[in-house]
Amino acid sequence: MLKPIKWSSLAENDFTNIVDYLETRWNNNVCIEFIDNIDFCIGLIQKNPNLFPFFNVKLQIRKCVITK
Predict the structure, then answer these.
(1) The CA-based dihedral angle spanning residues 68, 10, 25, 45, taken in that order and rounded to the nearest 10 degrees
(2) 19, 20, 38, 41, 63 from 23: Cα distances, Å
(3) Which residues of 45-61 are buried (b: 16+ CB within 10 A; e: fewer)?
(4) Are 61 and 55 spatial neighbours (Cβ–Cβ below 8 Å)?
(5) Which of 41, 42, 19, 43 is nearest to 31 (CA)?
(6) Is residue 60 helix, strand or coil?
(7) Are 23 and 31 in contact (CB under 8 A)?
(8) Confidence (pTM)
(9) Directed axis angle between helix 28-47 and helix 9-25, to 10°?
């Protein structure tokens, strides 16, 4: 069973800003690759969240580095 993913409003804004930046400063392929990396990592988190360390144990928030 896949675990649900909740995006905070800050995370949604960051994601939108990053995609906007990539579309403006880079090419469409870079933007698509970034979104694909996000989707891949979200899939990993949903399947096995224990792969990733807690950012906040109390709130059960985990972190994952998408790209450098």
Answers:
(1) 40
(2) 6, 5, 16, 21, 25
(3) beeeeeeeeeeeeeeee
(4) yes
(5) 19
(6) coil
(7) yes
(8) 0.80
(9) 150
| Per-residue pLDDT tens over the stretch 20-62 | 999 999 989 999 999 999 999 999 999 998 999 999 999 888 8
Amino acid letter, residue 63 = K
Token code pair at residue 63: 């972190």
Contacts of 44 (CB under 8 A, 6+ apart): 51, 52, 64
Please give the torsion angle defined by the CA atoms of residues 3, 39, 17 and 59, in that order, rounded to the nearest 10 degrees.
20
Q: What tokens does 45 get?
A: 């988190």
In whole angstroms, give the CA distance from residue 56 to residue 33: 28
